[in-house]
Amino acid sequence: VKDFTSLKFVIDAISDVREAESWIENDFLSVFQRYEVLEKYLPPECMTKMEMDNKAILRVSWQRLLDKVEEVRDTVHQLQQPFEQSLLQNVEVFKKDVSDFKQEYDVEGPMVVGLNPIDAMTRLSKFDRKFDTLQRKYELYSSGEKLFGLPQTNYPVIHEIKGQLESLKCLYGVYQDVLTTMDEYK
Fold first, then answer.
1. Coiled coil located at which positions (predicted)?
2. pLDDT tens digit string along 88-132?
């Protein structure tokens, strides 16, 4: 486990095994009960040696998987504390990054009053790229908070700017289409 993403993957895999455990146990019980009936009422030569071996291995393999899941769960539990501390530090830095981005967006972004459309499109492209980085971090840190059962940090600025950028991309996309169409008719 190297980072939050791999930790989340491991924890999700453990959860998947735990969720499947009860219905798999029920299926095993049903299968083994049927084997008992077959063994009780049919002659031994009706079941092949390979089938008998597979039946014996099935339970052992499942138990090995459960033991491995438990071992990994214990390891993950030991690793959680450093990852949680790192997440909390990263969230604090991210709050400042969001605030700095908002300030820069308001002063130098595509919605500055008096900006001509070409400059606004250039700025839109620049801030859209920067926002994509913020959005990825937001998703990573939010999933980390959820993973550790921490309160979800709210970033209304991210949602606000995301909406603005999407609207501006639509608007300037139409503007660009109009310019292209006008150039074609010249």
1. none
2. 999 999 999 999 999 999 999 999 999 999 999 999 999 999 999
DSSP secondary structure, 159-183, as one string: HHHHHHHHHHHHHHHHHHHHHHHHH
CA-nearest of 157, 164, 23 to 99 is 157
All structural domains of the chain with their residue ranges: 4-185
Our CA angle for 28, 34, 35, nearest 5°, is 90
pLDDT of residue 167: 95
Buried b (16+ CB within 10 A) or exposed e, 47-79: eeeeeeeeeeeeeeeeeeeeeebeebbeeeeee
Beta strands in the chain (DSSP E): none
Q: Is the pTM of this model over 0.90?
A: no
Mean pLDDT of 158-181: 93
Nearest-angstrom CA–CA distance, 82 and 78: 9
**Type of residue at 90:** N
Mean pLDDT, residues 33-40: 87
Cα distance between residue 82 and residue 75, in whole Å: 12
* Residue the block writes with tokens 């499109």: 121
